[in-house]
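Q: what does this look like with protoporphyrin IX containing FE bound?
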Amino acid sequence: MTQLEQEIQDPTSLAVAAASRGCPVYRADPYPVYRQLRETAPVSRLTPPHGVETYLITRYEDAKAALADPRISKDMYAAIDAYHTIFGDSSIALDDNMLFSDPPKHTRLRRIVNRAFTPRRIEVLRPRIQEITDTLLDNCAADEVVDLLPAFAFPLPLKVICELIGVPEEERDDVQEWCSVVARTGFSKGDKDRLADAESTLHRYFQELIARKRKNASDDLLSDLIRTQDEQGSLTDGELVSTLWILLFAGHKTTAYLIGNAVYNLLTHRDQLQRITTSPELLPNAIEEIIRFDGSVENATFRHALEDITIAGTLIPKGSLVQIAITSANRDPERFEAPDDFDVTRQGVQSNHLGFGTGPHYCLGAPLARMEMQLALTSLFDRFPRIDLAESPKETEWLTVPFPAFRGLKRLPVTLNAH
Ligand code: HEM
């Protein structure tokens, strides 16, 4: 029997193959595959294109425990061979940050950023986020088809995070371009060369921006971080550059894809949209439900096993990569009743979903992301109450990447008639 025949006979093998390879049908609706894996292989060995031995965790309780398990490390430098295979040498300089470290380094780096990333600083941004949102919507033509991703969902969080960090307005397009190349990791030689070029360009840009801010400090997060570095010496130059990168990267695509997923799911579940437009006080809960139901971070970032670990009866050998399928955990019927229903009134969703992670690496930007989502959705649906999808859901294309970090749309064409 060929391997393919075996896979077709065995739905679990088929599910593992689909999860490993990112085929388009699976990307359009990965949830049946995840259901199959939760039921039959909750910790499954994948065969990803990068070739490094990888285990995927799909059940809620296992995922929650794994995200906070000190035996499952985030320090990718300690797994340097795997790291080289997946990302190449050029990424190392940009990944010297909290997301790629364990305590005590993680605690030190996160505390420094947390001190600058205060609720006050985020609240101060509110009118500016509203202004950015309004300007982007002003530029959307009401009488023709608009792809909402490039017109609205992407520029909004990028402009906000640049504003927060202190990237000057006229430099933001370049920064966006370099970031999107870096985020598009591929495995061909050409991909790796393009990645290396963009990474070194970003690295040089950040070094130069830091030098400028050091001369002319202003009221932004980067100037605060430089002050902390100069006064306390607790942040190396490399860590500072890399911290800027993680803020920019983590604060941008995650929110952009979530805006897309939110609009798409609300337009395909009109009853739920009506509930939030008639009762706007439901919106914060609706946003949490969207993160649970179709969140933008499909898998947590790479981890690796520091020792042999057994989860749900499966041995994960020391040194293996561990991927945690957040979007699968968030559809686990053991945790959420009727998990495949999108219900903006669902009780207790905010404190239970894993869409922002959990444990030491819980999303630092969650309060900012929530504020951006609220302003974006309120403004969009207020301004364009007759907004509709411009193509049928059957034609919708989702990102196809070999080991998906993000769940998001390739495009979101809509018609925006105001009346
Ligand atoms: C809806 C939007 C967002 C989602 C769904 C999201 C999701 C996540 C998740 C799941 C993690 C944990 C990753 C892991 O454990 O492997 C994380 C970490 C992180 N996020 Fe977010 N995020 C969002 C927006 C933001 C924003 C706006 C920022 C910054 C301005 C941000 C900054 C970070 C940082 C710095 C970390 C690393 C924290 C650490 O390692 O201690 N995120 N995010």
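The chain has one domain: 3-415. The pocket of protoporphyrin IX containing FE is lined by residues 67, 98-99, 110, 161, 246-247, 250-251, 254-255, 258, 295-297, 300-301, 326, 355-357, 361, 363-365, 368-369 (CB under 6 Å).
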